[in-house]
Structure prediction request, 479 residues.
Amino acid sequence: MAIRDYQPDQEILFWPTPREILPQDHLCFVVDEVVERLDLSALPDRSETVGAPAYDPRLLIKVLFYGYATGTFSSRALRKAIQENAAYTYLTRGQCPDFRTISDFRKDHRVFLREAFVQIVKICQQMGMVKLGRVALDGTKIRANASNQKSFTKEELDRQRERIEEALQAGVQRDDEEDQRYGKDRSGEEVPEHLSSSKRRLKRLEEVLAELRARGEEKINVTDPDARFMANQGRIEASYNCQVAVDETQQIIVGLDVVSAPADSHQLKPQVEQIEATTGGKPEKLLVDAGYHSVENVAYLETQGIDGYMPDEDLSRSKKVKYRGKEQFFDKRHFRYDREQDVYICPVGEKLVRWREQPWRKLTLYRGIACEPCQHHDRCLRQASTTRTVCRFDQEEAFQRMREKMESEAGRAEFRRRGALVEPIFGHFKSNLRFRQFHCRRRAGALREFLLLCIGYNIRKLAGFLSQTRFNEVGYAAA
Prediction:
C-alpha cells in the first residue's frame, strides 16, 4: 500500500482557511449567517467609549450561540476553543477575546438574548418551520449553581447570626484588652483583619434573612436564594423549573421560561401568552401532561379557542402500569352529579350533600352521609377518613368536557404525540450536551443560560432544515 507524503518539518506558505477545512454544511456557517441577519440595535453603541477598542458584538454573539449549540458553556472553555477550534476561528475571524469579555457580555445582555430568540423563531416561521398547528408544552428540573447544604431555615440562619455576632463581640473585647495592655497604635475605627470575613458573612446573612421574611417561606439557599428544592430524578435538589413550548412542524422551541415554582400548573397561561408574543399567533392544539391540569387552565384554553389535551391526575394515574388492572370504581369520575338536588350520587347509590365552599380555590365540597356502615368503606376512603368527600369546581363543566375528550380514542391518540415532540429536547440538553446544572446564579442568570441553550437548539434545527432543503434541491436538479 502506498503512503501519502508527510514531512512534518516542511514549512507551509499558505495554510488552508476554515472554509476549506470544514464541511460545507457545518453548523458554524449557519450560526454566522443567522447572527448577521439579526437586528442588534438593542445593544449599546460602544464605538465612542474611551479605552481599548471593544470587540464587535456579533463576534461574541456567534461564540456564545455556537458554544451553547455544541455543548461548550464555560467562558474559559470557550476561550480555549477559540484558540484551538477551526469553527471558532472562522466565527471570530482570527480574533481571540478574553474569557472575562465573553462572561461579561453574557451577563449584561439578557434582554437582547430574549429579543434574539424571538428573531430566530420568526426566521424559522418565515421559512415554514413554525406553523402552530400542534404545540407541546412541558417542564424539566435543572439543578441550580448552589449546594443543598447551603439551604437553611429562618431558625438556622438566626443561630448563625447569633454565633457571628458573639464572635465579633468577643473579638472587639479582645482588641480593647490588648489596647490597654500594649497601648493604642491605631485610631480604633478600623475593622480588625480577623473580623473582616465575619462582618461580610453577617451582612450576607442579614440580606438573606430579609429576603426569606419577604417571601414568607420556611427555607432558603444562601448561595442562590431564587432556587427552590425540587424533585429531580429521584433526588431533592436546589433547582429551577425550565419550561419549553415546541412546535410540531420542525420541533422549533417557540416559548421558554425559567421559574422558581416547582409545579407546572401556573405556567400554562404565561407560555401561551409568550407563544403569541413571539409568533403573532396561538397554537391550534396544545398538548400538556397532567402536571398542568387545573380547572382554571382548562377554562382558559376554552376561552382562547385552543383545542387543549390535558389529562387530569386521576386519569393520568389510571394509565400508569402500576395502577393498571386495579379497581378504579370509586374515582370521582364514577360519582354522578344531580343538578336538581345539588348532590352527588356515589357508585352504590348513596348521596353526598353540599358541605363546605372554598371560594379561594373556586370549588365546593360535597360529603357523604352514609359512609360509615358502607361495605366498600375500605376501598372508597383513605385510611384516616371516615366520610367520602368530592369537590365540584366552579368550572366543572369545562373539566368534564376535557375528561370526556381525553377518554376518547381520538383524544388519547392526539395526546400520545406529546412525548415525541418535547421529551427529546430535554434528552438533548441533558444527555447530548450534558447540561444538567446551571453555571450562573439567581433566576436572571439561569434564564440567560437557558435562552442561549434554546437558541442553540433552534439554530441546530435550522441548520438541519437548510441542509435537507439543499440536498432536495440538488436531488431534484440531478433528476
Observations:
- The first helix runs from residue 18 to 21.
- The radius of gyration is 30 Å.
